[in-house]
Write a structure and sequence with these properties.
heterodimer, A: alpha+beta, four-stranded antiparallel beta sheet, 4 strands
Chain lengths: 260, 203
């Protein structure tokens, strides 16, 4: 592999190249983000690396691991509380407050959603006026686009900024004749072009963007023709990468979903 | 695209750290021996820690065990948390060390994807994505599994948990350059192993 081939005297390039994963996940500080952006303007190799990193992020997100579930959390918690009780009996004095339910305000789902949202908001908020931060700008524009397409404000609590691989999707399972895909959009595409592409494909944005700029879209199609659907998507220049959402229905019963 | 307008819209989003404040409040109460607060903290962190440890360890039972070992330390050491880092960074750091310990106690080779040591592509498919998608997911999992745990952890913390590299360095207890180097090697190896998702494309 020839990734290091540019290091000769070009530290700037090498440093930017190393920062790209964190450019893609949107966590660089203001100064670094500006430098990376400036370098991307003039460096096709790094631009390709950004695209490549997004594909990796999207593909990895499609590879679901076994989901955590509330039931598993409660089982684990019960076991740990037993251990803590045993430990306390063995010498440590603590206030006996076994198994008190958490206050509603601290319900885990609400807190988790807020935390990710605020992290992304903080990252985006750090961009100074006038900085052309493509990822943030595109995310915001597509966020607005999604609202236009769905004719409503797509902001159901924690559903906006989920991690790409969140194994516990807040979205209910899609209807039987609906396919769900994760997509990333070409950075050069305008909002108008994206809208046209989504209309052509009969796709609706149902969630996104994730911190890495990935959107979840739905189309009317059966699972059996999944591959041709993906081909139709990736044939569009506006769409950079598309991958089906892995068999969500096997992860958990829809009834077990959280509301928040 | 109207970049400045969009950027302004993004900035208008509420910028705050409610989650971190909640973490701190909970941890303060945990430090005082409040089990209800500990249970809340546990429920908050279980999904993220479980996903993180499962990708690191690849076995549900190991992940559950490491998770509880880590949260037991959180319970015991809450009073010694000095707030020099964020609560989430501290907890993930503990989980990372417990995860490595769990790996050390196992047959590492078995956990880390068998005895195929090379970086040869995992499938013959070209970048035309002509693989079944379930196969692609499997190859990805296998490719990640072939990375050393330290590299896998960086990929996980970057792409799944969306953390800044400085925080990853804190979690892993290493210099930031080590984080970048681990990611560099992980990227290189993943693209060698996964030509079918087009990562090997060169400019």
């Amino acid at each position: 592999m020839s990734d290091r081939r540019h290091r000769g005297g070009d530290l700037g390039h090498q440093e930017v190249w190393e920062l790209i994963p964190w450019h893609v996940n949107g966590t660089l500080d203001e100064d670094e983000a500006r430098q990376v952006e400036a370098h991307l303007e003039v460096c096709p190799i790094c631009r390709e690396e950004v695209r490549s990193s997004r594909r990796l992020a999207a593909a990895v997100g499609g590879a679901a691991v076994e989901a955590s579930s509330e039931a598993a959390a409660e089982r684990g918690l019960a076991a740990l509380m037993d251990r803590i009780a045993g430990d306390a009996a063995g010498g440590r004095a603590t206030a006996p407050a076994p198994a008190a339910p958490p206050p509603a305000a601290l319900a885990p789902t609400a807190g988790r959603g807020r935390e990710w949202r605020s992290r992304v908001a903080a990252a985006f908020g750090a961009a100074p006026a006038g900085v052309r931060w493509a990822l943030a700008a595109q995310a915001a524009a597509i966020f607005l686009l999604a609202g236009v397409l769905l004719g409503r404000t797509p902001a159901p609590s924690g559903a906006l900024f989920r991690t790409l691989s969140d194994p516990r999707p807040e979205l209910a399972a899609p209807a039987p004749e609906r396919l769900r895909l994760r997509v990333t959009f070409a950075e050069a595409a305008t909002v108008g072009e994206l809208r046209a592409a989504l209309v052509d494909l009969g796709a609706e944005i149902v969630a996104g963007p994730s911190p890495t700029g990935v959107y979840t879209v739905e189309v009317a199609a059966r699972r059996a023709i999944e591959r041709s659907v993906v081909e139709r998507f990736t044939a569009r220049p506006e769409i950079e990468f598309a991958t089906p959402v892995a068999h969500r229905s096997t992860l958990a019963a829809p009834g077990a979903r959280e509301d928040g | 695209m109207a970049y400045s307008e969009a950027a302004a819209a993004a900035r208008a989003a509420p910028v705050m750290a409610a989650g971190h404040d909640q973490d701190s409040t909970l941890l303060d109460r945990v430090a005082g021996g409040d089990r209800g607060a500990f249970e809340s903290l546990y429920r908050r962190y279980h999904p993220r820690l479980y996903g993180y440890l499962l990708r690191l360890l690849r076995r549900p039972e190991l992940a559950e065990e490491a998770l509880n070992d880590a949260m037991f330390v959180v319970w015991k050491k809450a009073a010694s948390f000095r707030g020099r880092s964020r609560v989430s960074t501290w907890i993930f750091g503990i989980a990372y060390r417990k995860g490595l310990k769990a790996l050390a106690g196992q047959d590492r080779r078995e956990i880390e994807g068998g005895d195929g040591p090379g970086d040869e592509p995992l499938a013959a498919g070209g970048p035309d994505r002509d693989l079944a998608d379930s196969e692609l997911a499997r190859h990805l999992a296998a490719a990640l599994a072939r990375l050393p745990a330290e590299q896998r952890a960086v990929v996980e913390l970057t792409y799944f948990q969306s953390l800044p590299y400085r925080e990853i360095a804190e979690i892993m207890g290493c210099p930031v350059n080590t984080v970048k180097t681990r990611m560099f090697h992980a990227r290189r190896r993943l693209r060698q192993m996964l030509p079918e998702i087009g990562l090997a494309r060169e400019a």
